Amino acid sequence: MKSNLVLDTWIVAPLINNRGGGYLNIKEVTMNQGEMACDPCHSKHEDQVIRLRKIEGQVKGVQKMIYSDRYCIDILMQIKSIKNALIKVEENILKRHIETCVQDAIKSGSESETEEKISELIDVISRFSG
Fold it and tell me: In the 8-state DSSP scheme, what is residue 109?
């Protein structure tokens, strides 16, 4: 059985595999029953939303650069800057996840919760490096 957790957040990301580019609008996330949600007091990652808004501005700036036929290297440099900023957001969210969700699972004493969080970490780290 699935329950719905609704997020009212725009997540800005270049769709690298989509030549049109664009934004991801995440309005609804479904969780399988039994999955642990992170502590709501940090799950909003509001400090990261501020960074994402800045990135959104950078993406709009690149669009303007393209429309005004700016020099290719200048556009590429801005895209690299956007990618680096997204990596920083990713790192910050992962760090907070480890400091809160993973630590809480370990402190809970539940072996299954701890194994689940460690397994998630291994999976996400292998995705980052691959």
Answer: T
Buried b / exposed e over 78-93, threshold 16 CB at 10 Å, is bbeebeebbeebeeeb
- In the chain, how many domains are there? 1
In order, the DSSP letters of 14-41 are --TTSTT---EEEEEEEEETTPPPPPHH
Per-residue pLDDT reduced to its tens digit, 36-76 = 455 554 556 888 999 999 999 999 999 999 999 999 999 99
How many other C-beta atoms are found inside a 10 Å radius of the C-beta of residue 13? 20
3-state secondary structure of 4: strand
Look up the CATH number of the domain holding residue 61: 1.20.58
Cα distance from N-terminal residue to C-terminal residue, the chain: 32
Place of tokens 């680096």: 84
